[in-house]
UniProtKB/TrEMBL annotation:
Residues 112-252 form the Anti-sigma K factor RskA C-terminal domain. InterPro entries: Anti-sigma-K/W_factor, RskA_C. Pfam families: RskA_C. This is Anti-sigma factor.
Length: 263
């Protein structure tokens, strides 16, 4: 089954993967699909950015030593189970004719991940062996944050020639802006600028803006700037960028497919 043809299922799997509740063989299969499909990679990165903001809702707490011991035990047990599953999986897959491709299996994994996600958000952190419930104020802040999440219609993962992701680009139609998040370690020099380009199916590249050096960047843009644009690219230019009419003058460092997500 091609999960890229099932947006709701892909979204739930990506959320579970980013949170860490998608485990074992299902997690490894998701990672394999992410390497093969830009749509899957983009969905995972989108959810990683969403979940990363949730840590701000909890005050800093030093867990008891017993908590770290339990975490280590779980990690070691998960590694052992993964090794055993990896040894059995080729034979199991051959015997069942690729059972994991079945839609019901994916839906089951997604449902389990969704339940674990809900539990993780509502319960909060574990301290001294007990469960501390999330306060009403924290839940209100969480609800406000989720409601403020832009409705992403376009998304691209821009990577280098070794397929290493460097920039996550999303289009926020409500605020008419492109949101770029650095997900790699590249940092341009003080005398250089990164410049974002649309690569339309006809005509030359069109500049969408010059990037600052912040980890999270926003550029004003309308849907007309990204509609029917199959790919985006980032070039390294002199400080301040170059005019759109000239096209990229420096090396193109990152590029990727621009995917329209039906939400």
């Amino acid at each position: 089954m091609n999960i890229t043809q099932h947006p709701e299922l892909l979204d739930r799997l990506a959320a579970s993967y980013a949170l860490g509740t998608l485990r074992g063989g299902a997690r490894r299969r998701f990672e394999t699909l992410a390497r093969e499909h830009a749509t899957v990679r983009a969905a995972a990165l989108v959810w990683q950015t969403r979940w990363s903001g949730l840590t701000e809702l909890q005050p800093a707490i030093n867990p008891a030593p017993a908590v770290w011991a339990r975490i280590d035990n779980l990690v070691q047990a998960d590694k052992a189970a993964a090794a055993m599953q990896a040894a059995r999986e080729p034979q199991a897959a051959a015997a069942t004719g690729g059972w994991w491709r079945n839609l019901l299996v994916w839906r089951g994994a997604a449902a389990a991940g969704a339940m674990a996600t809900l539990a993780a958000v509502v319960v909060g952190v574990q301290v001294n062996g007990g469960l501390r419930a999330t306060t009403g104020a924290q839940m209100a802040a969480l609800q406000q944050q989720l409601q403020a999440t832009p409705q992403i219609q376009y998304v691209a993962v821009l990577a280098d020639d070794k397929a290493t992701a460097s920039m996550l680009v999303t289009f926020d139609p409500k605020n008419n802006q492109l949101v770029l998040q650095r997900v790699g370690g590249f940092q341009e020099g003080a005398d250089k600028s990164l410049q974002l380009w649309a690569l339309p199916p006809a005509g030359g590249p069109r500049s969408l803006g010059v990037l600052g050096q912040d980890k999270l960047l926003k550029l004003a843009a309308g849907e007309a700037d990204v509609r029917q644009v199959p790919a985006l690219a980032i070039s390294l230019e002199p400080k301040g960028g170059v005019p759109s009419e000239t096209g990229p003058t420096g090396p193109v460092l990152f590029k990727g497919e621009l995917i329209q997500r039906m939400l």
